[in-house]
Design goal:
By secondary structure, the chain is mainly alpha-helical. The protein folds into two domains: about 70 residues, no CATH class; about 220 residues, MetI-like fold (Orthogonal Bundle), CATH 1.10.3720. About 75% of the residues lie in helices and about 0% in strands. It is globular. The N and C termini lie close together (about 5 Å).
Length: about 325
Amino acid sequence: MTTYVVKRIGQSIVLLFLTSVASFGLMHLAPGGPLAVYARNPHVTAHTLHLMEVRLGLNLPIWQQYVDWGSAWIQGHWGYSISTGLPVANMIGSHLAATSSLMAGGIVVAGSVGVGVGIMGALKPNSPVDYVSAFTAYAVWAMPVFWLGYILQLIFGMDLGWLPIAGQSSFSNPSLGSYLLHLVLPSLTLGGVSAAGWSRYLRSSLIEVLHQDYMRTARAKGVTNVRMLFKHALRNAAIPLLTVIALDIPFFFSGAVLTEIVFSWPGVGRLFFDALQSQDYPVEIAMIMLTASLIVLSNLIADLLYAVMDPRVSYGN
């Protein structure tokens, strides 16, 4: 296992290096360059632009710019925003709490709804409940995140008036209750698509496990259905689902971009969108590298969880 982990970490470092090279290169190939937002301002002279290029190191060869940026990025110095002049790390950190709470809410929704619906479908396959849950799951699964958000806003926010449709809290009542109330619809949007997928994965896996010989033996020995389901069947059936969950964690981070735009949620997704609009390259590339790191880490965790959950899986010594 140790050898495998070390090997995977080495592969991850190489992958992140290639991602950084590709991202850095694409940023410089974009029309206008990093100073495009200033070049469009008629009050900014060519001399001022040249001084800014020298100050930011944009006049250096691209390979040297990459080396300078990469070495600083590894040390935690992510540069300064072109739009605001603030440190990129501080900007992302100030928005990270909002995105973390949104991701947590989405995972809770996906886990509770996905597991519950999956168990129901496995216990009563080909029943009306199973057919309705399957149709609903596939319909939600096929929806873009932003479209699901608009539907939830229309139904629960505008038609029924039950829940707020935008913002992080009420201006007149910025309390914890107001914050949680504003979190409901974004969490349902972010977690709804994953819940649909998780429920189908768990249903299929659980049906297969329930028909195994050892489950028939446990049933013949008088093991109760509840004990058999939660102690024996669910643990084995959850192994394939764990991989899907681990690989979906980056989706919650990247999917927060659209969700935060739809619901005006002030997280890193909204920050990334604003950076795209203003061509704020230091913020953009920092967000890309964070997402890539999360994807690589999630893949490694998924592989290791297989060995933890199923003793038959071995990656060698």
